[in-house]
Amino acid sequence: MSESRITHVDAIFGQLVAKKRKFLGIEQLQLADRLDMTQSALSRLERGESSATLATQLKLAECFNTSLVNFMYEFEQSIQTVSREKIDIVPKKDAGDGKMLAFVGGAALAALLLSGRS
């Protein structure tokens, strides 16, 4: 029996944040301080367990030296990449208890986004 690979938009957004942070060589605590949040809050955001507010999205774009428009374009490209790989993007509430999501969708998503493909 084949398990479907699933994820949700918060997980995709979180992986994009983690990818950009690591590419720029910024430690999680450094970015959290620049965003006026705790490291654990940033960690939850990067894992897709929480959503970024518009204010946080604006601060992230600034920290990554880009515009919000360009940052959201990269996010949209990440969503398209995930879709092309036959990973279903479902509402967070439909992702189940999170264990299968983290194992199947999260692992596949991380491999896709961190591979440098966009």
Task: Give a structural overview.
The chain is mainly alpha-helical and 118 residues long. The protein has six helices and two strands, in the order βαααααβα. The protein has helices spanning 9-23, 28-34, 39-46, 54-63, 68-84, 99-114; strands at 6-7, 88-89. A two-stranded parallel ribbon has the order 1-2. Helix 1 (9-23) packs across helix 5 (68-84), helix 1 (9-23) crosses helix 6 and helix 2 crosses helix 3. It is globular, with a radius of gyration of 14 Å. The mean pLDDT is 83.
* End-to-end Cα distance: 30 Å
Average pLDDT taken over every residue: 83
Q: Count every beta strand, where a strand is a DSSP E run of 2 or more residues.
A: 2
Q: What is the chain-wise order of helices and strands? A: EHHHHHEH
Number of helices: 6
Structural class: mainly alpha
Radius of gyration: 14 Å
Low-pLDDT residue spans = none
Q: Largest sheet at a glance?
A: 2 strands, parallel
Question: Which descriptor suits the 3D outline?
Answer: globular
